[in-house]
Prior knowledge:
By secondary structure, the chain is mostly helical.
Amino acid sequence: MPDNEKNIPAEPETxxxxxxxxxxxxxxxxxxxxxxxxxxxxxxxxxRRETAxxxxxxxxxEQIEHTQETQEANREAWTTWLTRFILARExxxxxxxxxxxxxxxxxxxxxxxxxxxxxxxxxxxxxxRMAQTYCDTAVQVYEEEENATVALELLDKAVELNGNDSxxxxxxxxxxxxxVVRDLFNLDRPVNREELDRAHGALAQARMLQRLRxxxxxxxxxxxxxxxxxxxxxxxxxxxxxxxxxxSDNPLVRWRHAAxxxxxxxxxQKKVLDHAAMLAEAEKELDAxxxxxxxxxxHSSLFDASLTSLVVRPxxxxxxxxxxxxxxxxxxxxxxxxxxxxxxxxxxxRDYYTEALKSDPGFSLALxxxxxxxxxxxxxxxxxxxxxFLQALETDPNCVQAYYGLGMVYGYQDRYETAKSYFDKGLxxxxxxxxxxxxRGIVNTEMQQWDAALEDYxxxxxxNPADYELYVRKxxxxxxxxxxxxxISDLLFAEELNPDNPDIAYNLGNxxxxxxxTDRALARYGSALxxxxxxxxxxxxxxxxxxxxxxMDEALESLNQAVACAKQQSERFLLRxxxxxxxxxxxxxxxxxxxxxxxxxxxxAPAWWGEAQVLADLGRAEEARAALESYINLHxxxxxxxLLQERLK
Length: 649
């Protein structure tokens, strides 16, 4: 049985209790009332005890339940308190953690921002330094070499690096505008539409410069030079006056003022201005510019820079690692131009070009200009000119002026194929170089390449339709090819462009003489000689026309004038006069002219031939044979010479 059942009193059995009176029966047990009472009391006690135990158990159960409920309530209260405590502390910790995290993030971001700023700052210093170096180098290249192409390439790089810097933008606009000025000044023809648009664009840049730096002279210099190139000299003078007011101590201003004066003289075809006085003033300006160029250069103010450039400018040295740009070689170059082109003093011009070369031995402009001076004027030194031109090409393979000069050197030596090759090279670089086209046409004419010559003259006329000299040269070629009417039309058009020009009248006279129209030819020759009395070729041509008209004495007088006016190669007129005198029967004067002609040029075969004929006619056989021998040495296959030789034996 289970243990809890052992102590539980057994239930009394039910049924009737034995009667007291039944004691008489055998076998029955008779219980007294006392015992019964005790038994009843025992049972009642058992019942009470059971009841008490039951109540006790119930109380115990209630206590247990109460204890459990109390414990559960306590547990719930503890759990609630602990939960609330933990939640309260967790919110605080969370807030603390958030604040700590924010502070850490702020510190990290601050440090990152600082290092980022320092990185940007260092990079910016390098960028500004590099941009400034590009800018300074560009200015130096432009000032020392006047090479705007390279300078603009460098400035474009500077703009890419630091495009907000006003100094860089200023130099980019100024040098870009001056590049246009250079191209316009180098033109040997009128400007075309595209070039005019570029000139107006440069003027717009000058206006921008004026707004950017109203107290800087560069904008007025640029405007003045553009107006000078466009032949608007009054406006150019006005702009240059403003530049001089702002910076008379700037060598660039003084140099460009001299260039303006020289250009005014160059374009004053009617001689209205006092050329001598203006050239003297230009020379003074160049001297002043030379002196100023040797002084230290003042850098631009920090107020001209952008904000970002100002931030880093304390750590960027201006012109670091670069020498000061100097204008002295360019000024010497222009002093040479003044002497060569305006005063025709080529020796002094060469001295100035040499001074420019002392500053820069590879200065191609000075070398080619000195080469031109060697082949200009009466005395030419072709060897020295060639040396200068070749040296210029070593320094600058694209020096068009050097190719032109070499073409002229070989042209003077009658080496026309070589001359043409150099003109071709120059035109390959600049196909709109009027001077090269013109001289290549002349060389083609000398080589009797008529079609090529006409093509060159036509191209040249497309570039400058108002160049009367080109019409004259083209007319000569047209006459050679039998197109006389076209030649006359071109010459008449040239005469409209330049009335009373002696060259046009002279060439018209030649064509009329070739057509047999002696009267028109003489009228034209007379007009040319009236305009130019020292025109030796025209005197000789007039003599031919007079001879054809059988006006021999007048023809002889005209040849006398040709000989008297001849400044070079007078032997050709002596020869022609000797032939005329021989035809007129004036043997002694003819002999003297033939001898004088061949003394000037020993290879002049017609002079030896005329001398031999006159001597033979005079009966001076020995002298005639000697003169004839010299002629035969030059022309061994002449049958008439052989006949005369047989006659003199």
